Amino acid sequence: MKLIVSYTSPYARKCRILVEELALTDTVEEIEAHPFDDGDVLLAANPLGRVPCLIGADGAPMTESLFITEVLIASADDPWTHDWTTRRLEALATGLIDLAVARRVEMVRDKQIYSDYWIKRREAGIARTLDVMESQADAFSGERSVEGLTAAIALDYLDFRYSESNWRADHPKLTALHERWNERESFQKTKPPADG
Ligand SMILES: N[C@@H](CCC(=O)N[C@@H](CS)C(=O)NCC(=O)O)C(=O)O
Question: What's the CATH code, domain 84-189?
C-alpha cells in the first residue's frame, strides 16, 4: 500500500504514526505530496485534493483519516482495539483537530476576507472541547489507543498552530496524556517541520 501524506497535516500524521505503531512499515510506503501543490500523484488518487490518501494493494484509493485508520488497524497482525467507545472518543478528538485546522485556515486568509467571527467561533469550540476531554481524560489513557493517539495529535497541533491557546493551563490530565505520547519514537519522528 502507499500512503500519500504531507508532513504538516495532523490527519496524515495520525496515519503515519499508526503505520509505525502497528508494525506496517514493510507494507505501507509513505509518499510526500503537499496538497496545495495539486500534484499529479495526489490528484490522480484523490479528486478531493487532500491528504492523507491511502492507495490499497489493489490500487484502490481511500480518503479520510478515520477510514484509513480502520484499514490500517484491520491490516495489522496485532491490531489495536477499535470498538464503539474507542470510535466515539476518536471522533471527538478528530473534531478538535478539525476546529484547530479550520482556525488555522481562517488565520492565513488575506486580511480583507479574514473573519474574526469564525476565528472566535473556532476558539470557543476548541476551549469547550478541551474541557470535555479533560473531564474524560481517563478514557483516553490507554497505551495502544487510537483515541489517545488522536487526542495527543490534536494537542500537539495546538502547540504547532495555536500555541497562544495555552491549553496546558487548565488541563493537567491532557498535559500528562500529551507528555506520554510525546515520549514515543513514532510521535517524535513525525513532528511537523518548524518552518511548515
Ligand atoms: N477529513 C479529512 C481532512 C483532511 C484534510 O483536510 N487535509 C488537509 C491537510 S491538514 C488538506 O489536505 N487540505 C487541502 C485542501 O483542503 O485543499 C481527513 O480526516 O482525512
Answer: 1.20.1050.10
